[in-house]
Amino acid sequence: MGLDENNVVSPPVVIRPRTTAEVFAILAYCTSTQIAVVQQGGNTGPVRGSPPAFDEVVLNLGRMDSIRGFDEVSGIVVADSGVVLEKLGGWLAEGGFMSPLDLGAKGSCHIGGNVATNAGGLCLLRYGSLHGTVLGLEAVLPDGTTLDNLSTLRKQLFIGSEGTIGAVTAVYILTPPRAKSTNVALLALSSFAFEFWDGAALDLARNTLHHVRFPDEISGDSNSQVPFFWVLVETQGSEQSHDLEKLERFLDLVMSGSAESGPVVLDWLVAQDAAQATNSLLRPLTARKYLLESNRTSMNGHRNIEDRSPRNMEHGLALMKRDFVGYSKSPAMLQLMKRFKDMIDPKGIMNPYKYLP
Length: 357
What we know:
This protein is of the alpha+beta class. Helices cover 29% and strands 18% of the residues. The protein has a 5-stranded antiparallel β-sheet. A hairpin with a 4-residue loop joins strand 4 and strand 5. Helix 7 packs across helix 10. The chain is globular, with a radius of gyration of 22 Å.
């Protein structure tokens, strides 16, 4: 039987450990008996990284959901891999800090899964990728060896490895102070942007989602003079009025453009208060959840500008996109990745059939 990315397979057993020691025992046993293992977190990725492909047992880390500690001086938090991202963010907010990672799926996704797929998210440009904000990891190798406080090269190998070389059981994350002000703007464009929804998705959402407030002047009609592409921008700072002034000055600049190229932005709308930013279309996560899921031409809530692109933002390669990794990795690099996988997981039990072609 060949691989089928649309085939739904029921696992023979689901194992739900509570401690790193239990993960150690499980993986050591599976390696000795050559039982394949697929790890699961919040199951929010759509590229079939967490469901079994054939007869793998499922290692679900959802019960490992404790926040182990926090250093208020450095801003470093240590959390189990099963901690839901939204729970971590709420816990940090009580102390005046925030997670450097924010996703539309934050109510379900686990921090361990975010690390395994090297999630990008809404705050990537401001706070950087997990390769920088994750300071260390605790991980269990396929043979049961437990590695704690991984750093530098060893840490980087696990970030984005999609569960193919071991199980991440805890994460050390550098968290920034929570912003004191937030501004949200909706930008109208006439051509493609880095991350957007189009007019067809907007009209579908308008006709379906009656509980979402849409600004009256927005239309998705591609036959009219109204812009056909839309982008949400969120800025954060320390003083609301000053930050809003800077945002509006920037928007005026990109709207005026230059004599040669014309305006970058055709129109814009800034949320005037917290209620509008929270309850209307101008709330980034609301728009991402509803509008971008409506856009069937997008990939996982993100437009892949080039159809051949193997990049899938925070969802990884897994089963559905593993055959496209060659577009961004050379044959020599792929061979090195396979050699490293064979060295760490010689029996090939960790998330088989995924990630590498």
